[in-house]
Amino acid sequence: MSKPMRGRHFIDTQEWSDREIELLIETSADLKRKFHRDEPHALLRDRTLFMLFFEQSTRTRNSFEAGMTQLGGHAHDLTPEKLQVSHGETAKDTALVLSRYGHGIAIRNCDWGKGNTFIRDVAAISRVPVINMQCDRYHPCQAVADLMTVREKFGADLRGRRIAVTWTYAPNYVRPLSVPQSEILIMTRAGLDVVLAHPPEFRLEPEILAQAAANAARMGTRFEVVDDMDAAFTGASVVYPKSWGCLVHEPRREAAVKTIEKYPGWICDERRMRLARPEAIYMHPLPASRGLEVADAVIDGPQSAVWDQAENRLHTAKGLMALTM
Ligand code: CP
User: Is 314 helix (H, G, I), strand (E, B) or coil?
Assistant: First the structure.
């Protein structure tokens, strides 16, 4: 039997059962219908969410803040500079205080080797649910919105379809591993075959790869890792090309950028889209580096699902808060 949803932390999708992920997507779809019909859905009247951002955000910040307003509550937009965290107050002390003032704490901390630990330290002593708004290892909110989007395009039965999660070139900054890691974790549970493609230095954490393989084995689907973007795209129904850093291989920023610069050919362009199935969709969590990761003709073209993905961040943020808070 599932644990009660109220009060549950959401740090990694692997910690929620298939049924709980299903309930989250169903709740989000219901809230999406209500939003579009302008029907009242103030499920969290007078409730407060504290959002703590260690890094910048457009979609996550605004989907949670707007979502909380639409649910009848209020979200505080916090950064370390606005808190005594900047003077060394610990995660534990901060969480003890915030969890006495409100009903949920949401954190983004992508510091490699530290972000997930920080969120788990807060969750360990918080009286209220803690939501991972992206850390160094996981972006579970993005993953759930993406699964909802794939289902909207192809239906709930995804067996026989394949998603290609591939690395792309973008030397402008070294991105965390959290999106590809959460994508391979959730998509291997969704009935899709999953192929992960990247140059050799851009491997993901071995523990995550093992979990994705175990998910696929449980579902009777395929999970494979290749080093060829064309091979990954060929025959795929969903392509998910995005950049990430070589943090497992080389966490030092300057060396990491030099490694990224070795692979400028890893772009999603019209030629590669033609390798995928005719009905294939192009996905990206955004922000995308246009001209580096993806050609304008693809991200602005008829196969692009990126705006639906971005919209579903709102509905899934609301579903998550409504269930846990
Ligand atoms: N996809 C995503 O998390 O976007 P932001 O970094 O803008 O929140």
Answer: helix
**Ligand 1 center to residue 110 CA distance, Å?**
12
Report how far ligand 1's centroid is from the alpha carbon of 1 (Å). Answer: 33
The first and second tokens of residue 172, run together, are: 């402008």
| Residue having the nearest C-alpha atom to atom 6 of ligand 1 | 57
User: Is 126 in the same domain as 163?
Assistant: no
Residue range of the domain that includes 111: 3-139+310-324
62 lines ligand 1 (CB under 6 A): no
Give the pLDDT score at 165: 99
> For the segment 117-160, what is each residue's pLDDT rounded down to a tens digit?
999 999 999 999 999 999 999 999 999 999 999 999 999 999 99
Cβ of 142 below 6 Å from ligand 1: yes
The total of other beta-carbon atoms located within 10 Å of residue 152's CB is 17
**Among candidates 261, 266, 265, 242, which has minimal Cα distance to 250?**
261
Pairwise CA distance, residues 124 & 111, whole Å: 19
Query: Are 70 and 181 members of one domain?
Result: no
Q: Give yes or no for residue 59 CB within 6 A of ligand 1.
A: yes
CA distance 72 to 81: 27
Q: Where are the alpha helices (DSSP H) in the chain?
A: 18-37, 59-70, 91-101, 115-125, 140-154, 178-187, 206-219, 229-233, 253-260, 270-275, 296-299, 306-324
Closest CA to 256 of 197, 182, 172: 172
Are 181 and 314 contained in the same domain?
A: no
3-state secondary structure of 80: helix
* C-alpha–C-alpha distance, residues 103 and 174, integer Å: 34
Q: Report the nearest-CA residue for atom 3 of ligand 1.
A: 60
Instruction: Count how many domains the chain has.
Output: 2
Is the overall model pTM greater than 0.90, yes or no? yes
CATH of the domain at 319: 3.40.50.1370
DSSP secondary structure code for residue 55 in this structure: S
